[in-house]
């Protein structure tokens, strides 16, 4: 895994107003906690942090300053509900080689046989893995898989050192031909037009 280094500066101002000012100036507030140590508050570059966590909810980062170098894992990304911009990061202290419990997204690749399609039943899988070996996704190959196939945990090819406590018969992906329900036919006579009403007789002159 490529080492991602994020430069940090100690945060000295707190509160909503200070947070907004930090973001306006291109920074991002972060908090670091875990391993029994006191939480630490820092400011990082927004653009650098955005690129590192984009598309990877379990991103592993190395925080660095003149007197600090700390390996951390992203635990929570707080976003603005309207703009979806990142407003704050929660980071967990970790040590190289330690196992962590994370959720990893499931993706499928390949084309099933015929008209069958693959439907993901479990969008993420809870796994335990050494912190530096966290996969970005669990990939399930459905190339040539037949209609009516259930791919279970027992069928998943997990990367080395990745384990899960899910039962082996838990269904992860279903491969099946979509069923199209036929529209009910109209009963005979339903479409018949109602007899036209007789026009009222004209008044006699």
Automatic annotation (TrEMBL):
A Gene Ontology biological process term: translation
Ranges annotated as biased composition (Acidic residues): 184-205
GO MF term set: 5S rRNA binding; structural constituent of ribosome
Record-linked Gene3D superfamilies: Ribosomal protein L25, beta domain, Ribosomal Protein L25, Chain P
The keyword Transmembrane helix is annotated on this UniProt entry: no
Domain Large ribosomal subunit protein bL25 L25: 6-91
Domain Large ribosomal subunit protein bL25 beta: 99-178
One Gene Ontology cellular component annotation held by this UniProt entry: cytosolic large ribosomal subunit
Region called Disordered, residue ranges: 183-205
Keyword line: Ribonucleoprotein, Ribosomal protein, RNA-binding, rRNA-binding
Coiled coil: none
Pfam family, one: Ribosomal_TL5_C
Subunit structure: Part of the 50S ribosomal subunit; part of the 5S rRNA/L5/L18/L25 subcomplex. Contacts the 5S rRNA. Binds to the 5S rRNA independently of L5 and L18.
NCBIfam families the record matches: bL25_bact_ctc, PRK05618.2-1
Record-stated family: Belongs to the bacterial ribosomal protein bL25 family. CTC subfamily.
Function: This is one of the proteins that binds to the 5S RNA in the ribosome where it forms part of the central protuberance.
Stated name of the protein: Large ribosomal subunit protein bL25
UniProt source species: Trueperella bernardiae
Gene assigned in the entry: ctc
